[in-house]
Amino acid sequence: MKEICIVEFPSNLGLKEPQPGKEPGVKKLPDWLWKHNLHKIILPKNIIRLDPPKYSNSRDPENQLLNSNSLVDYAREQAYLINNLLSQNKFPFILGGDCSILLGAAMALKQKGNYGLFYLDGHTDFMDISLSETGGVGGMAASIVTGNGTEKLTNILNLRPYINEENLWCVGNREYDDAYENEIRNSSATYISLASLRKQGILKSVQSFLSEVKNKDLDGFWLHIDLDVLNDTVMPCVDSRTPDGLSYEEFNELTSLLFQSNQLTGLEITILDPDLDVSGQYTKEFVQQFTTTFKTHINLEV
């Protein structure tokens, strides 16, 4: 039986400042979830925290990205930590942070074998720097870990690609813009927008993914959860709000199917910004919904 280890990566390195001189508040997410009892309910075997380098809002002149050198240093430390947990047959339950925390996990997975990535997000995060208005790596994380973009971030420790592009499933996007969607449409990844997910059904979509993991004989898969995949009315405290999104009923159905798979290697939760949920009402509801589904359905037998 795998032991759950909560890993805290309180990083905002992949986001721009919400206003001049103010850092993105998502770095407070692990402490915020602790305050709202997520750790107490999950009851991990242990809790590890890895603080990131100092945040800067200035772009790297070489590649126009925010915090690119810091992201490389942080990803190497993250990968080392996660690699050790996987070697001990533990289940990393990661609390971000913005979506750029995926880099370290993806590197560790590459060091271990050939893994799939189920990228559950209200955006594709599959974007070239030329399309980015902010330079934030959080909006390019899925693209970078599959080997697209600047060498500095895509080929850390000569591991490019960390996840093979054809093993990426990008699910839940609702930013319906051709220039944005064409990036993922023209890749070899599987793209299921929110509209497509509802059309073909959650059960069928997840079963297709799990069948592919099995048929390709992958070593497992990683689950990325950006909380902006949830409906904007139940999760408005995110950095890039978009109308619509999954209801909790849909979200719980989808995640429960993934939790039941013994191929699930680890997961990460990103983007809820405590600064945007001062009363904690949205966080309380999320913790209640997520922990109930997780504890009911998780299958950690090897």
UniProtKB/TrEMBL annotation:
InterPro entries assigned: Ureohydrolase (IPR006035), Ureohydrolase_dom_sf (IPR023696)
Q: Does the keyword Metal-binding apply?
A: yes
**Is-annotated flag, keyword Protease?**
no
Please name the GO terms that the record assigns under molecular function.
Answer: formimidoylglutamase activity
The highest taxon in the source lineage is: Bacteria
Any idea of its EC number? 3.5.3.8
Question: Which UniProt key words apply to this protein?
Answer: Hydrolase, Manganese, Metal-binding
Family, similarity comment: Belongs to the arginase family.
Xref: PANTHER family: ARGINASE
Q: What is this protein called?
A: Formimidoylglutamase
What's the name of its gene? hutG_1
